[in-house]
Specification:
The complex is a heterodimer of chains A (215) and B (222). With 215 residues, chain A is α/β, with parallel strands linked by helices. Chain A has five helices and 13 strands. By secondary structure, chain B is an all-alpha fold. Classes of the chains: A alpha/beta (215), B mainly alpha (222).
Chain lengths: 215, 222
Amino acid sequence: MNNQKFCFIMCSNNEQLTQEAISYIQRLEVPDEYTIEILTIQEATSMTSGYNEGMQASDAKYKIYLHQDVFILHSRFLFELLDIFSNEKVGMIGMVGVTKMPENGIMWYGHRIGQIYSNCVYETVCMKLDDATIPYQNVDAIDGLLMATQYDILWREDLLKQWDFYDASQSYEFRNAGYDVVVPYMEHPWVLHDDGFMKLQHYYENRLKFIEEYL
Amino acid sequence: MKPNVITHEEFIYRQSEAFAQQKALDEQQWHKMYDHEECQLLSSINSLLGEHTTSAYTKLIELLRDPHLQNTYSDDEPIAYMLVLLNIYQYEKLYQVSHSVLEKGTSISELIAFFQNIKHLLWKIEFSDMQHSTAQHYGNTEEAELELFNYIECKHVSIIALRLFISFICVNPEKMLLYIANQYLDMGMLKHTYLLLEHYNENYPGNPDVEETLKMMTEQSI
């Protein structure tokens, strides 16, 4: 394990978006003595399997799993991560999280904290939910748009075989392993999510799997 | 961002199993009712775009004018992009723009790729400005501007389209309209400047500097 390395891992099916996301990563300020690595996983059959492939392909201690349409704006993003991860109990960091998971497992409907810029074709907005406490706040789960870790825990590709609930699942895996999952306090959003609209065709069947396993 | 105000009871209900089950049923029902129609719609749109003619674009406008289609598919990503592009196209027609936004591709995916390019170029400028970031991100704003203006010129993107793109794409379109207008003014491209300021004034009236500049430009017949 290389303790001075960050690895960015993306499942990719859109070269244009992926290259744009990479261009933002390449502009990040990198702490002295640290290196970065970028892995894009093509033709993943699920987010969990794609992320496992990326995780196992890198010896970086710090791994940032992000969507191909997420652009990291905050140039000192990596410094912020190191700051928060200096607390060894923190296992995972996200940009948006739910403080208490609703009984139905759908984190969007719970009380959420954090902020991002988000584009949904018709407009780009500053999606500012409630502020996390300074310097960061524990949550039950974080949104999958960006998930940064300092420990490797396998993603549940045995359980979740598509593109939903991998984020909630991994949050619970980390918490069940005794780690905290947190959202940092941010003055302004650190990332822009070129989101569009979600496809929810398999969402609800995966919801049942999540609930059965974790709630 | 407009607040989505709901009652406490609604907030609690949305966290319930009953609500999730209802949403699941709604989703299932939607696909049962509309999957086939959606497929046909996308095929029709692609076919019309492929014709690359004014009459085809007119048919496209008529097709997507249908309230049923707009209500049903406004959250469908390819259709949403088409609705925005058709909106822009109609404005371009009013201004008799010669290289319309619909001519930038012969399919939905090509037009989305074009749209994405514009988004990415505008964001590079917007997020290099300190107003949105705690730390400057895209260090070289000039490089970002050059990329945008070169792309606009190379692809014959009209200023009518650009000003609408700014409105759809930017977090702070008011500031970006002024910013881009100033860049064109510095370049001596006065007609472009005028059109951007005109759009600014329509949407954000009451800026005396803008009003004064527009008045002056009108008097000079720009």
